[in-house]
């Protein structure tokens, strides 16, 4: 068994143990993945299946797709949870077979298993983050570029840096949808109680000093908090110091450089994080409670409970969790602090959609993505907030921003 097969089998065994798939489904998927009788041996080793409640939105069993099937998109659960306008889009596509993707913790093993057999239950996956799983899905021959299907005017309308993020070797594999940017947030009720001026700290020295004041004054249990995952903390804090932290291995002909964890700016960023940890909760480095550790992280819990003054994360986190406060209007957002003399940059990424190479309805999938990513209600609810929440995720199109600037709706 090679490494890829080993990873697929382990992922499927985990889903079986958690009750997310049945023993029959486990055998079907191991066969699809080309694992042969190894799946039978693995099933025997798992023992009898545990009795668990079925998930409320269980993903479909990967089987060969019948001819003429309806458009079948698959969404990462959190996107559906944060954006209640999605059903409005679905209603405009009669017969749509909307499903939740089996990708907790960015685990795409089931997509890869089907791809190895040149099949796909789904046509499009909404939830792909370019820097996380896109490269592996391309390498596994699971997804294909959108270039032959996306309308040229839509392609040209994508903000250039966002388009570049989803592009590999000149082809766009990631159709962008939801933009997140690492920022700072703070609870002004806490900082005011600590005697701190109501303005975002401009640099890391001020940020850390203010966090210490919050702690010393007793205004909150913690001075500051952050998400320990590297792409949510180390990378953006490093960029606030310098973006010149990338290198290429000798002989590497790819277009993408690698992050240098040993660079001076990265080491400085680690020092800043260490100082933040001193004024944060003891469990700040622990994994989250949901989604294989990447969500409901300790920072989110502390900020929602009004136990902390300052917060570093993508903008949708403070917006969502401040909604649980006694006074949500106490939330403030600002640019990520910079190092004195540093670049003052940050990190963004876009969660978007992948087109399955072995899926069907590719032209229809492109029509669906045009409708989804331009839906007025989704952007109104996301930017302005709604009764269901306030994710604050942003659109990837120049024309949408131009229209907002022109119309200036009261929620903008």
What's the structural blueprint in terms of helices and strands?
Blueprint: H1 3-17, H2 23-32, H3 38-46, E1 73-75, H4 77-82, H5 86-90, E2 99-100, H6 109-116, E3 124-128, H7 130-139, E4 143-144, H8 152-157, H9 160-165, E5 167-168, E6 171-172, E7 175-187, H10 188-193, H11 204-217, E8 222-226, H12 234-241, E9 246-247, E10 258-259, H13 264-278, H14 298-304, E11 308-314, H15 316-322, E12 331-334, E13 348-356, H16 362-374, H17 376-384, H18 398-407
Parallel strand pairs: 1-2, 1-3, 8-11
Antiparallel strand pairs: 3-13, 4-13, 5-6, 7-11, 7-12, 7-13, 9-10
Helix pairs in contact: 1-2, 1-3, 1-6, 2-3, 12-13, 14-15
Structure overview:
The chain is an alpha+beta fold and 412 residues long. 40% of the residues lie in helices and 14% in strands. The chain has 3 domains: 1-54; 55-179 and 349-407, 3-Layer(aba) Sandwich (D-Maltodextrin-Binding Protein, domain 2); 181-334, D-Maltodextrin-Binding Protein, domain 2 (3-Layer(aba) Sandwich). Strands 1, 2, 3, 4, 7, 8, 11, 12 and 13 form a 9-stranded mixed β-sheet that branches. Strand 5 (167-168) and strand 6 form a beta hairpin. Helix 1 (3-17) runs parallel beside helix 3 (38-46), helix 2 runs antiparallel to helix 3 and helix 12 (234-241) packs across helix 13 (264-278). The radius of gyration is 23 Å and the shape is globular. The protein starts with a helix and ends in a 5-residue tail after the last helix. Mean pLDDT is 87; it is low at 36-66.
Q: How many discrete domains?
A: 3
Q: Sheet bearing the most strands, described?
A: 9 strands, mixed
Please give the CATH class of the largest domain: Alpha Beta
Total number of helical segments? Answer: 18
Write out the CATH superfamily name of the largest domain: Periplasmic binding protein-like II
The end-to-end distance, rounded to whole angstroms, is 54 Å
Number of strands: 13
Instruction: From the alpha carbons, calculate the radius of gyration and give it in angstroms.
Output: 23 Å
Strand content: 5-15%
Whole-number average pLDDT? Answer: 87
* CATH fold field value of the largest domain: D-Maltodextrin-Binding Protein, domain 2
How helical, in percent, are the residues? 25-40%
CATH architectural designation of the largest domain:
3-Layer(aba) Sandwich
- Structural class label: alpha+beta
Low-confidence stretches: 36-66
How would you sum up the global shape? globular
């Amino acid at each position: 068994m090679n490494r890829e097969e080993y990873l697929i089998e382990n992922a499927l065994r985990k889903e079986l143990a958690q009750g997310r798939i049945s023993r029959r489904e486990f055998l079907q998927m191991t066969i699809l993945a080309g694992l042969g009788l190894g799946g039978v041996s693995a099933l025997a080793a798992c023992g009898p299946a545990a009795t668990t409640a079925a998930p409320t939105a269980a993903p479909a069993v990967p089987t060969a797709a019948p001819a003429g099937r309806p458009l079948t998109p698959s969404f990462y659960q959190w996107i559906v949870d944060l954006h209640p306008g999605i059903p409005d889009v679905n209603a405009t596509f009669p017969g749509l077979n909307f499903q939740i993707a089996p990708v907790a913790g960015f685990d795409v093993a089931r997509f890869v298993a089907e791809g190895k057999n040149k099949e796909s239950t789904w046509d499009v996956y909404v939830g792909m983050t370019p820097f996380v799983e896109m490269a592996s899905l391309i390498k596994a021959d699971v997804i294909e570029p959108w270039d032959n299907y996306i309308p040229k005017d839509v392609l040209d309308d994508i903000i250039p840096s966002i388009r570049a993020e989803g592009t590999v070797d000149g082809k766009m594999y990631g159709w962008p949808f939801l933009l997140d940017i690492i920022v700072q947030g703070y609870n002004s009720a806490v900082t005011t109680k600590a005697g701190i001026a109501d303005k975002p700290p401009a640099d890391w020295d001020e940020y850390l000093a203010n966090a210490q004041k919050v702690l010393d004054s007793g205004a909150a249990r913690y001075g500051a908090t952050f998400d320990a995952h590297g792409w949510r903390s180390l990378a953006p804090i490093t960029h606030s110091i310098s973006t010149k932290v990338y290198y290429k291995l000798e002989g590497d002909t790819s277009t993408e450089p690698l992050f240098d964890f040993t660079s001076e700016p990265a080491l400085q960023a680690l020092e800043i994080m260490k100082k933040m940890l001193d004024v944060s909760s003891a469990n700040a480095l622990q994994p989250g409670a949901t989604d294989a550790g990447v969500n409901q992280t300790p920072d989110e819990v502390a900020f929602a409970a009004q136990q902390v003054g300052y917060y570093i994360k993508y903008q949708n986190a403070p917006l969502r969790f401040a909604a649980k406060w006694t006074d949500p209007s106490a939330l403030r957002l600002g640019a990520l602090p910079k190092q004195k003399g540093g670049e003052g940059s940050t990190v963004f990424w876009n969660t978007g959609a992948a087109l399955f190479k072995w899926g069907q309805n590719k032209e229809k999938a492109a029509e669906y993505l045009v409708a989804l990513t331009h839906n007025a209600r989704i952007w109104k609810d996301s930017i302005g907030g709604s009764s269901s929440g306030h994710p604050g995720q942003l659109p990837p199109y120049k024309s949408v921003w131009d229209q907002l600037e022109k119309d200036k709706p009261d929620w903008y």
